Amino acid sequence: MSGDRGPETCVPAALAVACEHPDVEFTLVGREADRPADWRERAPRNAAWLAASEVVAMNDHPREALRHKKHSSMRRAVDLVKARTAHACVSAGNTGALMATAHFVLKMIPGVERPAIASWIPSRSGHTFMLDLGANATATPAQLRQFAVMGSALAEDRSAAPGPRVGLLNIGEEDIKGDETVQKAHELLSASGLNYVGFVEGHDVFGDDVDVVVTDGFTGNVALKTMEGTARYIAQAMREEFTRGAMRKLGALLAAPALGALRSRLDPRRYNGASMVGLNGVVIKSHGSADGFAFQRAIEVAVAEARDDLPARIAAKLDAPAVT
Amino acid sequence: MSGDRGPETCVPAALAVACEHPDVEFTLVGREADRPADWRERAPRNAAWLAASEVVAMNDHPREALRHKKHSSMRRAVDLVKARTAHACVSAGNTGALMATAHFVLKMIPGVERPAIASWIPSRSGHTFMLDLGANATATPAQLRQFAVMGSALAEDRSAAPGPRVGLLNIGEEDIKGDETVQKAHELLSASGLNYVGFVEGHDVFGDDVDVVVTDGFTGNVALKTMEGTARYIAQAMREEFTRGAMRKLGALLAAPALGALRSRLDPRRYNGASMVGLNGVVIKSHGSADGFAFQRAIEVAVAEARDDLPARIAAKLDAPAVT
């Protein structure tokens, strides 16, 4: 157990979710020292503690963590998924180390070359799934097609609607724009059998014309962080304008119900829990700085994906049997 | 004269700016039919009309426009800059055609391989300049260094503060992340003599740690459109929350001063007017859908860059004489 806030945040969040899902078994993996003193009294029947001797630090180099921390809580949690003792694992720890460990231990679904990070983004029509959000710095056309298949399976799974509309992120909607990679990926996707709607642009993620937006990890990560930056910038501007003098503060007080509803609606914690797709197992990455509410959302994502066996669905979509 | 709104919007905006700058000569280039019937009465002394026989349409292919529309208003406006009859040109028309025409007619500043589109983005510290926003789909490390030099000159020019802090957009702040291109560009920038602060991420554009953010045109364009999409999404959510029932509407009324100030502060029209940098001449691209207020801002950007002779400053920074 790691993350910026550590076990103090993760443990109570996990126990809360365990109470909400009595039919699901939860294993908390962490150092013995991190187990709460009152564990026996607090833990529900369906929660167990598995002791690990060390923890991957947030600033450990992914390769070093993989090589030298074979008894870390992260490694042991992923090993549980490999052994099918667990159906999913969730971590708020070091993203690179989690990706490297999961890739090494679980291996890829046949037909997928690289894992991708996928998440949902709020949109006018509900939400859009976007990938890759940073697992890889580059992607080949074939890999972009694989991302599209995985994103499609994910969207189908979560929305329970068949044939999600898949778009390829580009800098113009005309067929002539973009570099060679997106042009070739466009050809592959047009012939993929997916419900491919063609090129989409950065603002389309929030619209209602597409359910899955596919891009390379560099562009996807920049887009995601740009969204976060824009939202934070606007939130700060709002705070400033609503606290500029007594009259403005009074206005804010009277507008409190609308402002509160807006805050809750745009709360990024609601969208916590990114899926590392393409692996032979469900691995969910929580934001490192997630608080209890946010971490619970990430665990809920893991429960949903495990129930639906997303890796098997992806494998089926790729027309190759899952190696599990 | 083109753009989504055409001369009905551009002409009054240009005449308004002409009245504000009696020391600047304005030439409006458009078809005779587009000249207002009451031109003689309305135009101030420092505004002239130059007739063009045709106009580049918003959906013309850039190469076709360049080849076959040599008497278009766009081409004639750029020709004026080439002939030094004008010090800058502004267009709300077809971006690709403007870029192709300006590139062909004006040529590049020695030492710059490709033009880039640069714009300012509001940030906590005032604003950040970002480039390339979509002139090119890809960029080599050497071109990213050239973008950095141009962005630095632009920021210095507009902010009148020497040594603007330049950051390179990447998906992590650690030196190990990102693909080969950004890694090599990082090396070039570290040795460039610019005030290079290293890698920055998508959210840093809005922070106060960097003045110029450099990236390739694909990533920059996606980031820009993602910002626009996020802002529009939040604005719509605000409208919805503030109109949900009578009490909410009353709250909005009482919060009107703060909401109005917020709207004006975040108004994207204030940031209209992107610079096509790297050319031997000042060329400003207005958003195609710009209204009069926004188009005036784009003309103001052109006036400022022409006064400061930005191309000469860029050439000086590149240690090569400007060919003008």
**Assigned CATH architecture of the domain at 1-112 and 278-324 in chain A:** 3-Layer(aba) Sandwich
Number of strands of chain A: 10
Mean pLDDT of chain A: 91
Which strand order spans the largest sheet of chain A, edge to edge or round the barrel? Answer: 3-10-9-4-5-8-6-7
Distance between the first and last residues' Cα of chain A: 25 Å
Q: Which strand-content bin applies to the residues of chain A?
A: 15-25%
Total helical elements of chain A: 12
Indicate the CATH class of the domain at 1-112 and 278-324 in chain A: Alpha Beta
Within the CATH hierarchy, at the fold level, what is the topology of the domain at 1-112 and 278-324 in chain A?
Isopropylmalate Dehydrogenase
CATH superfamily of the domain at 1-112 and 278-324 in chain A: Isopropylmalate Dehydrogenase
How would a textbook summarize the main sheet of chain A? 8 strands, mixed
Which geometry of chain A do the CA atoms define?
globular
Helix content of chain A: 40-55%
